[in-house]
Amino acid sequence: MATPIGYQKPTNLHDNDYISDPNIPDPENLPKMLGWNILVRPYPIEKITRGGIILSASDAEYTRNATNVARVVDVGPCCWNRSQHRNRDGEQFDWVKIGDFVSYPRHVGKMRNYKGVTFVVLADDEINERLIDPMVFDEDDHYNLLIPEEDLKKFNTIYNPKFKG
Fold first, then answer.
1. What pLDDT was estimated at residue 74?
2. Domains and CATH numbers, the chain
3. CB 155: neighbour CB atoms within 10 A?
4. DSSP letters along the chain, please?
5. How far apart are CA 33 and CA 74, in angstroms?
6. 28-45 pLDDT, tens per residue?
7. Which of 4, 7, 60, 162 is deepest in the core (most CB within 10 A)?
8. Which residue from 36, 165, 38 is spatially nearest to 112, judged by alpha carbons?
C-alpha cells in the first residue's frame, strides 16, 4: 500500500533519533510563535559516553528520561503574563529569552520539522529550568550532550559574556 501524500510517519518523542544534526544551522524565516508557545531546538544525547563506553538501552533510556536540553528559538507574546508568573511586586518578567538553554520533561511538546531541522513547540509552563551552563548535565560520564561549540559560544553567557539574548 502506498503512503498517502502529506502523511508523516509517527515519531517517538522520547527517542533521540527524531532530533536533527545539531551542526545544521537554524533555517531562516522560522515561524513566529503565538500565545503561550515557545519554539525550542532540542539537542541530542550521544549513546556513547565521553569515555567511549556504549550505553545499554536502559542507560540510554534513563539519560533521555532525565534530560531534554534545548535552545529557545522564539517566544510567543503571551508567555509568562498570567498573574501566577509575576514577581512579588506584581511585575511581569520573561523567564527565558531567545538564545537561552532550557530543559523540559519527557513527553511534552509538539515536534515540528522545518526545512530539515527539528524543533519542538512547548507551552511556557512546560519549561523546567533555564540552564546558565547547558553542559551542567554533562558532569558525569552518562551525559554526552551534542551541543556544537559554535552554539555554546554564540548563545551562552558563560561561554560568551557579551550575549544578551
1. 95
2. 16-155 (2.30.33.40)
3. 19
4. -PPPTT------TTSGGGSPPTTSPPPSSPPPP-TTEEEEEEE-B-SB-TTSPBPPHHHHHHHHHH--EEEEEEE-TTTT-SGGGB-TTS-B--SS-TT-EEE--TT-SEEEEETTEEEEEEEGGG--EEESSGGGGGSSTT--B---HHHHHHH-TTT-TT---
5. 6
6. 999 999 999 999 999 887
7. 60
8. 38
